[in-house]
Design goal:
Shape: globular
Organism: Corallococcus exiguus
Low-confidence stretches: 1-14, 184-189
Oligomer: single chain
GO molecular function: ATP binding
CATH class of the largest domain: Alpha Beta
Strand order of the largest sheet: 8-7-9-10-6-11
CATH architecture of the largest domain: 3-Layer(aba) Sandwich
Family: Belongs to the PhoH family.
Largest sheet: 6 strands, parallel
Number of domains: 2
CATH topology of the largest domain: Rossmann fold
Order of helices and strands: EHHEEHHHEEHEHEHHEEHEHEH
Number of strands: 11
Main location: cytoplasm
Keywords: ATP-binding, Cytoplasm, Nucleotide-binding
Helix content: 40-55%
CATH superfamily of the largest domain: P-loop containing nucleotide triphosphate hydrolases
Structural class: alpha/beta
Length: 359
C-alpha cells in the first residue's frame, strides 16, 4: 500500500475516490490516549494523511481519499494495539508510526514495543523506526557497534539508554562516555577554568542525554563515584576498559589514529558503541575521518556491526528531515556539476573537424 503521507506519489496516480470508515476503539481510556492532549494526535493524522478525523465517543470517523483512509485505519488499529500493550502514544510517536507503516512494516509492535529503558520521568524509551530497532538489537548482540547517520536519528540517545539499562541490570560496572574535543567550525579561543571546565562544553550533549534518563542528583552521584565517566577522547589513551559500556560520540571528528586507539581500549565483558555523522566532519581540510576509515577497514569483521541511518529515521522536528534532504540534494548537485562540465568539455574536444572547401 502506498503511504499517502510521503507525497512521493504524483497526485494524478493516487486513488482519490472519496470514502469513509469507522474504527471503534471500544473503551474511553484507550480512546483518550489515542486522541492525545486536545486531540493533537488526530490533528496530526489529518495534516499528514490528508483525511478528516471525527470522534463520537469511542468511535473515530475517517473520511477522505480511499487510499488515505485505508492507511489511516491501519495506523489507528496499530496505535490502539500499542496502547493496549502498555505503550503510551504521544504526538511524536504518531509521526514516527506514519513513517514506519509507510515503509511497508505490517505491525508497529514489532518495531516500537521493545522498551529499552524507563526514564526518570517514567517515560518509556523505545525504538521509533526500523533502523533504530535493528540498532538496539545489534547493541545487544555485538560487542562493537557503529551507528552512522544524520543528526536526530537517535544514535547517541539510544546508545545512552542501552548503557543505563546495562548498568541497572548489572551487566556492566560502569559507563564511559567520550567525545573528541573538536570545535564545530568556530574558533572559541581560550577557555577559562580548570581542565574539567575547559572540556565540559564539548561533553554537554552527553550530560543532557544522561540527565534525561535519570534524576540529576542520581546522575551526579554516579559521576562523583566514577560509575559514570564523561571525558574527552584524549583521556582514553593507555587505558584498558573492563566491565564497561563505552560510547564514543561525534566519531566523525576522530582521526584514524584516535579511532584505532579507542577501539583497542576495549577489555573483557565490555561493549563499545561508536556514533557519528559522516556529513558533518569538523576536522581540518585533508584530514581523513577515523569513522570513514573504520567503515572501510572493519566492515567484514565478525562481532563488529555497522548500523546505518537515513533521513527517514529522524525523530526530531519534522522539518529536520526536510533540512537534511535539502542539503543532500544541494551537495549532490555540486558534485554533479564538475562532472557535467568535464563531459561537455570532452565532447567538444572530440567533435570532428569540418573540412573547408573552396568554391
Amino acid at each position: 500500500m502506498r503511504n499517502p503521507a510521503t507525497l512521493e506519489v504524483p497526485a494524478a496516480r493516487a486513488e482519490t475516490t472519496p470514502t469513509s470508515a469507522k474504527v471503534d476503539v471500544r473503551d474511553n481510556e484507550t480512546t483518550q490516549v489515542l486522541c492525545g492532549n486536545q486531540n493533537e494526535n488526530l490533528k496530526l493524522m489529518e495534516r499528514r494523511l490528508g483525511v478528516r478525523v471525527g470522534q463520537r465517543g469511542t468511535e473515530l470517523l475517517l473520511s477522505g481519499p480511499a487510499d488515505a483512509v485505508a492507511f489511516a485505519v491501519r495506523l489507528v488499529e496499530n496505535l490502539e494495539g500499542m496502547i493496549r500493550a502498555g505503550r503510551p502514544v504521544y504526538r511524536e510517536d504518531v509521526e514516527q508510526a506514519i513513517k514506519v507503516l509507510g515503509r511497508g512494516t505490517e505491525s508497529l509492535q514489532e518495531v516500537m514495543l521493545g522498551t529499552v529503558l524507563k526514564s526518570s520521568g517514567n517515560r518509556q524509551i523505545a525504538p521509533k523506526s526500523i533502523a533504530q530497532k535493528r540498532y538496539v538489537d545489534a547493541i545487544r548482540n555485538h560487542d562493537i557497534v557503529f551507528g552512522v547517520g544524520p543528526a536526530g536519528t537517535g544514535k547517541t540517545y539510544l546508545a545512552m539508554a542501552m548503557a543505563v539499562a546495562f548498568l541497572q541490570e548489572r551487566k556492566v560496572k560502569r559507563i564511559i562516555l567520550a567525545r573528541p574535543a573538536v570545535e564545530a567550525g568556530e574558533k572559541l579561543g581560550f577557555l577559562p577554568g580548570d581542565l574539567a571546565e575547559k572540556v565540559n562544553p564539548y561533553l554537554r550533549p552527553l550530560y543532557d542525554a544522561l540527565h534525561d534518563m535519570m534524576a540529576v542528583e542520581r546522575a551526579q552521584s554516579l559521576v562523583e563515584q566514577g560509575v559514570v565517566e564523561v571525558a574527552p577522547l584524549a583521556f582514553m589513551r593507555g587505558r584498558t576498559l573492563n566491565d564497561a559500556f563505552v560510547i564514543l560520540d561525534e566519531a566523525q571528528n576522530t582521526t584514524v589514529e584516535q579511532m584505532k586507539m579507542f577501539l583497542t581500549r576495549l577489555g573483557y565483558n565490555s561493549k563499545a558503541v561508536i556514533t557519528g555523522d559522516v556529513t558533518q566532519v569538523d576536522l581540518p581540510t585533508g584530514k581523513l575521518s577515523g569513522l570513514n576509515h573504520a567503515r572501510s577497514v572493519l566492515k567484514n569483521i565478525d562481532g563488529i556491526h555497522f548500523s546505518e541511518f537515513s533521513d527517514v529515521d529522524v525523530v526530531r522536528h519534522p522539518l529536520v528531515q526536510e533540512v537534511i534532504r535539502a542539503y543532500e540534494r544541494s551537495e549532490a548537485s555540486q558534485k554533479a556539476a564538475p562532472a557535467a562540465r568535464e563531459a561537455a568539455s570532452a565532447s567538444e574536444g572530440a567533435a570532428p573537424a569540418v573540412e573547408r572547401t573552396e568554391s
